[in-house]
Design goal:
Blueprint (H helix, E strand, L loop, with lengths): L12 E5 L4 H8 L6 E14 L2 E3 L5 H11 L3 E15 L5 E16 L4 H9 L20 E5 L2 H5 L3 H14 L18 E4 L10 H7 L2 H12 L10 H25 L2 H7 L5 H8 L3 H13 L3 E3 L5 E3 L1 H6 L9 H15 L2 H7 L4 H5 L6 H6 L3 H23 L9 E5 L5 H9 L4 E6 L1 H7 L11 E5 L12 E5 L7 H14 L5 E6 L7 H13 L7 H9 L3 E11 L1 E8 L1
Parallel strand pairs: 1-2, 10-11, 10-13, 11-12, 13-14
Antiparallel strand pairs: 2-3, 2-4, 4-5, 5-6, 7-15, 8-9, 14-16, 15-16
Helix pairs in contact: 2-3, 8-11, 8-13, 10-11, 13-17, 17-18
The structure holds the ligand O=c1[nH]cc([C@@H]2O[C@H](COP(=O)(O)OP(=O)(O)OP(=O)(O)O)[C@@H](O)[C@H]2O)c(=O)[nH]1.
The site of the ligand O=c1[nH]cc([C@@H]2O[C@H](COP(=O)(O)OP(=O)(O)OP(=O)(O)O)[C@@H](O)[C@H]2O)c(=O)[nH]1 has 20 residues, from helix 1, strand 2 and helix 4.
GO biological process, one term: methylation
InterPro entries: COMT-like (IPR016461), COMT_C (IPR001077), COMT_dimerisation (IPR012967), ITPase-like_fam (IPR029001), Maf-like (IPR003697), SAM-dependent_MTases_sf (IPR029063), WH-like_DNA-bd_sf (IPR036388), WH_DNA-bd_sf (IPR036390)
Subunit structure: Homodimer.
């Protein structure tokens, strides 16, 4: 996400920092001269280690208990932030809108000797700090490395805060009158590495330790949630539930407007009224009016007093068929393939299997050959969906790690070559072979863009059967989630056999760590569609480790896909 100027939007407003923390005051002090009353900001910082929350120590012994627990280990620092936008309505009562988000930063402590611990505690610094240390001062001595936003550890994630303000103030003026997604996805990277000497683990307990965010996130919610008496449903809770219940209606309105060509039409001919749009898309005026108004309420279109309609920024960015980051192909796939499959979610949950036969009346023994690639139109639609996802995520994946040492890469299942193209753009020395099924390769030429300096080539083959092209780097973007562990092992074994020491595997998937709704819903998506699943970082690390890959590093690009690299030892 590109960050636009946002802090100036707070000018002339009274911003109340609902926090006693002098550090937060300091971080936000420079942001503006604030006058009129309407924004309240609250924040709370906690440290999570081994599934336990550490807040501020109550005395020196408590500080000792905390710091000795952190010694030699990596822990997470979470700051939860709530922004309340207040607005006096015409009845003189106050409407308010609540935006909440949190940021996680990982901090690794050195091994601390007893005398070091007590010297630090005696300095008095730990007492008013979450986890018992102040990274910005003497506590910095204790820290070996930090992955993520430093200011988040100090008590306020200023960058994420600005990104949220950007969504509120810059994305669309209309959004001010609507709810904003609480944990909006942004394009910053959260990086971290698995502990050195990353060992294989088949112990389910290891998975829990690898995902401390389960308990800490729940407890963080407790910490930042407001305690209240049971006075019946609260307005925000009710609103949230209704939003969730309405989710499918919103999706279908978006799919339908996209399918009927509403966004392309209003781009070439802005300011049409409902009757004019209805005529162009060959639909009823009544239905078109409802659809256009729904799109306005969702922030996809804008309107004005004359009741004519225009594309909002979101539509221009993602919904035009020729936008550089068009999600049009993916939207059509969601509408025509994913939607029918999801109507059988209950069966999928009961049986633990995909639902192709129920949704489309056809047996699907081989997921790709029997469902997606056995009909030319469906194949093109699927390729177009993969193409649009790869275009939107490609740059974030291609630049997640320093790949300068790799001169040759092979994108296994690389479909239209969109990610390969981003890789060659980001790495001028790199040549990329896209390896995919013959039926895909024969159609890949239809997809623009044409590849830079011919450093992308296509090779037809089946990665479960045929010899893999030699490469320094193997890329698996949205591939492993299609398959159960047994098949993943087959593929990783084949890749490992083609690798030499120092070669690497780069995996781009939505990882389940962190309780992001998109990832968890994507996991349901894999359930209804495939025999595969979404996985956690630790699961990938374990799978790779069994094939001789180690030194696993993960970057959360927060752009649909997370990226993981592992090196052949
Ligand atoms: O490295 C650092 N880690 C944490 C801090 C400071 O610790 C406190 C965290 O406590 P909390 O979120 O409860 O905030 P309070 O100070 O109690 O203010 P509230 O009134 O908002 O509860 C916070 O001050 C961090 O800045 C640090 O300084 N360095």
């Amino acid at each position: 996400m590109v960050l636009n100027p946002v802090i100036s939007k707070l000018a002339g407003k009274l911003v109340v920092l609902a926090s006693a923390s002098p550090r937060r005051m300091e971080i936000l002090r420079n942001t503006n001269h604030l006058k009129t009353p309407d924004v309240v900001i609250g924040a709370d910082t906690i440290v999570a280690v081994d599934g336990t929350i550490l807040e501020k120590p109550v005395d020196k012994n408590d500080a000792y208990r905390m710091l000795s627990r952190l010694s030699g280990k990596e822990h997470s620092v979470y700051t939860g932030v709530v922004i309340v936008l207040c607005h006096e309505n015409e009845n003189k009562s106050v409407d308010y809108r609540l935006i909440d988000f949190y940021e996680e930063t990982k901090v690794k402590f050195a091994d601390l000797s007893e005398s070091m611990l007590w010297e630090y505690i005696d300095s008095g610094e730990p007492m008013d700090k979450a986890g018992g240390y102040g990274i910005q001062a003497l506590g910095g001595m204790l820290v070996e490395r930090v992955h993520g936003d430093f200011l988040n550890v100090v008590g306020f994630p200023l960058n994420h805060f600005c990104k949220q303000l950007d969504v509120v103030f810059n994305t669309s003026g209309l959004l001010l009158s609507q709810e904003i997604l609480a944990h909006s996805e942004t394009n910053v990277k959260d990086e971290h590495t698995w502990p050195l000497g990353n060992s294989c683990s088949t112990n389910p307990a290891a998975e829990n330790t690898a995902a401390p965010s389960l308990s800490s996130r729940e407890q963080l919610t407790e910490v930042i949630g407001t305690e209240r008496e049971d006075n019946g449903p609260q307005k925000d809770d009710l609103q949230r539930i209704i939003e969730l219940m309405d989710g499918f209606k919103a999706s279908k309105a978006l799919f339908t407007a996209s399918r009927l060509g509403v966004f392309d039409l209003l781009q070439s001919r802005p300011e049409l009224d409902a009757a004019q749009v209805a005529q162009e898309i060959k639909a009823s005026v009544k239905g078109t009016q409802c659809l256009l108004d729904a799109c306005v309420s969702l922030g996809l279109l804008r309107t004005c007093q004359k009741r004519v309609y225009m594309n909002a920024a979101l539509a221009q960015g993602f919904l035009l068929s020729d936008a550089p980051h068009s999600l049009g192909g993916y939207i059509q796939h969601c509408d025509q393939t994913v939607w029918p499959l999801f109507t059988h979610l209950e069966c999928a949950v009961r049986d633990g299997t995909h639902q192709h036969e129920k949704a489309f009346g056809k047996k699907a023994n081989d997921l790709f050959q029997d469902t997606l690639y056995n009909n030319q139109d469906i194949k093109l639609r699927f390729m177009s969906a993969m193409h649009s996802i790869a275009k939107v995520t490609g740059r974030a994946v291609a630049t997640a790690f320093d790949l300068s040492r790799f001169k040759t890469a092979c994108d296994l299942g690389g479909c239209t070559g969109a990610l390969a193209h981003e890789l060659t753009k980001a790495h001028p020395e790199m040549r990329v072979t896209v390896f995919d099924l013959p039926t895909v390769v024969e159609m890949s030429g239809r997809f623009s863009p044409q590849h830079s300096e011919n450093r992308v080539s296509f090779l037809a083959g089946d990665f479960f059967e045929d010899e893999l092209p030699k490469a320094d780097l193997y890329i698996l973007a949205r591939i492993l989630h299609d398959w159960p562990d047994e098949k993943v092992h087959v593929l990783l074994r084949r890749i490992a056999d083609s690798c030499t020491s120092g070669s690497a595997v780069l995996i781009a998937e939505t990882m389940l760590d962190g309780w992001k709704p998109h990832s968890a819903l994507q996991s349901l998506n894999m359930l209804v569609q495939t025999e595969g699943m979404e996985r956690r970082e630790r699961q990938f690390a374990d799978l790779l480790c069994q094939h001789g890959f180690g030194d696993v590093q993960v970057v959360h690009t927060r752009n649909f896909l997370d990226a993981l690299i592992a090196f052949k030892m």
